[in-house]
Every structure is written in C-alpha cells, then in structure tokens.
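Please decode residue identities from the backbone states below.
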C-alpha cells in the first residue's frame, strides 16, 4: 500500500516543477544551438509537467478523487477531474514562474 503524500510534499513538488521550468529555460538559452537548446527546453518542460501530474493526482487522491475505485476499477470521472486540476495548476505555475523565468533568461544571456 502506498503511503499518503502530505500537503507539504505536494507544495514542495510544485516548487520543484517551477525550478525545473526555469532550469530548462536557462539551459535551453545557454546552450544556444537551435536543436540542442530546444531539446533541453522541451525535455525540462516535459519533466516539470510530469512532476505536476504526479503531485496533482496525489492531491486529487487526498481530496477524494482516487484513480481507482474501491473495487479496483479505474474511475474515468476522477481521472478527468485530476487532469482538469493539473491543467489549472500548470497554468498557475507558469504564471508564478514568470519572474523567475525572466531572471533565468537574463542570466543566460
């Protein structure tokens, strides 16, 4: 049985996603070449999105939207709720990370 993720760990996971976004932007600009820089940026954005997915699904489980029912079957409505929560959190994290992203761009140039 999986142990429960605490709200503090969820917040730390979202902070890690913001740092991953900014680090990907910094490395993508610092490398400078079109193909490699784009690859760094896409890779780090994908990593940040996976972090947000993991912690949002944990948050959804805490709020009463587990992916699996008590029977062990997958609940499509709960998966959709968690995906909508992920999209909202992703948008908010992009807004929150904007000042740090601007700093990363300035440092990379």
């Amino acid at each position: 049985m999986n142990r429960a993720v605490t709200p503090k760990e969820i917040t730390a996971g979202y902070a890690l996603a913001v740092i991953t976004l900014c680090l990907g932007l910094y490395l993508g600009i610092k490398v400078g070449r079109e193909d490699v820089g784009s690859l760094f940026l896409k890779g780090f954005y994908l990593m940040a999105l996976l972090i947000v997915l993991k912690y949002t699904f944990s948050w959804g489980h805490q709020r009463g939207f587990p992916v699996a029912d008590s029977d062990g079957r997958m609940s499509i409505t709960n998966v959709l709720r968690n995906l909508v929560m992920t999209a909202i959190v992703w948008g908010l994290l992009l807004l929150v990370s904007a000042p740090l992203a601007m700093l990363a761009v300035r440092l990379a140039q």
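Observation: The helical segments are 7-31, 34-62, 76-96, 98-108.
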